[in-house]
Amino acid sequence: MSVANMPSALFKYLPPARINVLEDLMIRFTQASSLNDTLELRPPVKGVASDERLAELAGERQIPKLRDMISPEIKEDLERICPGLMEQCLASCIPECVRQTKLKHENNPHAVFDVLDQNFGILSLSETSTEVRMWGHYADGGRGFLIEFDPKHSWLQAKHEARDSFRHIRQVIYVASRPDKSLLKVTDQDFLYTKWDVWRDEREWRILRCFNDAAKKCTAHDPYGNDGLLFAIPPDSIKSVILGFSASRDFETAVRSILATNAALDHVQVKRASQSNETGKVEILSEKAELSPR
After folding, report:
1. How confident is the model at residue 107 (pLDDT cuts 50, 70, 90)?
2. In sequence order, what DSSP letters do the residues of 152-187 get, joined into one string?
3. Are 48 and 105 in contact (CB under 8 A)?
4. Is residue 134 pLDDT above 70, yes or no?
5. φ/ψ bin of 62: left (φ > 0), alpha (ψ from -120 to 50), beta (otherwise)
6. Is 193 helix (H, G, I), strand (E, B) or coil?
7. Closest by alpha carbon to 167, among 179, 154, 177?
8. Residue 169 C-beta-side C-alpha neighbours within 13 Å
9. I need a labelling partner for 237 at 20 to 30 A (CA). Which of 66, 164, 205, 230 fits?
10. Nearest-angstrom CA–CA distance, 144 and 53
């Protein structure tokens, strides 16, 4: 998707305890194995390829290598004694080549997950700021806050080349079914940016970055045994902070103090969420709106 067609803002839901994200301007890119979707980065993969395709590849790659191992003298004798025998023998090796290839690569989908999980982290953002269930689940029942990011900022648009699968924000696609695919037919969209329909309400956009680019490594492990790898947030990528509809006065004071004492965040607006007692719906109020006493 082109930058011009992206949402005007993307949001990170955070609980009050994560106020240090604003204070330190550091945010975690999380390993897939630490996320709440146990199928994250695990598309349904069946085999490396179809038997027919593996047979074609064996004929293109493995059989020529076997042919080259036969000396010119033996090739000449075989052709003289029984024309076509050598090629028949080589062709008969194809089923075994297919069997060996399938055995060799049967764990490749798990290996791909392990490589991604050990080397790349995910920052999940949402295009909606008013999803009640996300306020409840990710922002401590509305006691927390949102950080509003500019999706067009270079921090979220840092791909190195047109086909780069990482370093730039991409929309997650939600599907009702995910038919099995062979490993050779699975795309980066399948592996990295597709989720089941049950997560559709989150309207997620995500960016993946290599841990080699992390600014800081936390010493404590998370409950899943993973390190916390933190990445520096450019201050000008933040557009606003949205206080939750159940945020306390003390929390508002703490947020405003952080923004006031960091000149790089002078431009950041403070808004707040409000939840209707009649409908339960959430709306975002402007910076001038007063926070209700808590």
Report:
1. low
2. TSGGGB--SSTT--SSB-EEPEEES----B-GGG--
3. yes
4. yes
5. alpha
6. coil
7. 154
8. 27
9. 164
10. 52
Q: Look at the pTM and tell me if it is higher than 0.85.
A: no
Would you mind telling me the total number of residues written for the chain in this entry?
A: 294
Residue type, 134: M
pLDDT in tens, 144-201: 999 999 999 999 999 988 888 999 999 999 999 888 777 777 788 988 999 999 999 9
Nearby residues of 128 by Cβ (< 8 Å), 6 or more positions away: 11, 134, 203
Rounded to whole angstroms, the Cα distance separating 158 from 287 reads 31
Rounded Cα gap, residues 290 and 272, in angstroms: 8
* Secondary structure letter of residue 37 according to DSSP: -
Q: For 250-261, what is each residue's pLDDT tens digit? A: 999 999 999 999
Considering Cα of 1, then 233, then 235, then 294, what sign does the dihedral take? positive
What residue spans define the domains of the chain? 3-42+120-285, 51-105
The pair of three-digit structure tokens given for residue 272, joined into one six-digit string: 């707040």
Side chain identity at 135, as an amino acid letter? W
Per-residue model confidence as pLDDT tens digits over 266-290: 999 999 999 999 999 999 998 655 5
Q: What is the dihedral of CA 150, 159, 164, 110, to 10 degrees?
A: -70
Q: What letter does residue 94 receive in the DSSP assignment? A: H
3-state SS string for 106-133: CCHHHHHHHHHHHHEEEEEEECCCCCHH
Q: Which residue has the tokens 């064996």?
A: 58
